[in-house]
Amino acid sequence: MRQKHGIAMIALLAGCVAARAQQTSQVQLRIEPTNRTLTVSAQDQVTVDPDVAILHIGFQTQPTDAKSAYAAGSETSNAIVMALKQAGIPETAIRSEWQRLDSVYGKPHKFTLAQQWTVKVKPERAAEILDVAVTAGATDSGQIDWTVENEQALQDKALEGATARARAQAAVLAKGMDVKLGALVYVSNQTSSPVYPMFKAFAAPMAGLAASPQPLAIEPRKVTSTASVYAVYAIE
Hints:
The protein has 236 residues and is of the alpha+beta class.
């Protein structure tokens, strides 16, 4: 009995040693000249002043019958567009977003007409043109998107900065590790679309609008674009 027990223990120990040897061989890493690499990642952010302001301008009529709501809406719509053009805004800079005639919930046979535009202007004219629209009848206006004409150029500048950072980091890291930086093996990048901070200021209905000597004080917001680079270099 003891002999059989001893044989069983020897077999068990042999199995454990074999399993451990197999496990060690599975996680062992082989360092070869062909896979000697150095990896870096870098990010850069570019922030600039906007050169375009996109105003969201609209109105909504008071509840009435469908025909009267449409007539009132048509009058207000034409008055706003005419005022914008008289203020020097070209027709190509005024774009309709939507317009609709809606029934009023809980009020049978009552309707309102609403319309919305985007108006593209220089940032320094944003407050002035918003005031022009409100004076002409806009009652739901105020969201402003601050952006740039050339978004691609802004993204390219951020990517250029991230690339330079990645290259510089690789050089510093190689020097610190006392190795020579070799050829670029792999690189990838990611850019974010410019971030447009928005401003909102909703106008009061014209019926209760008091005369204001000056437009709102509106300051343009910065526009930001971010890029990141991941690079793998060979080391010698």
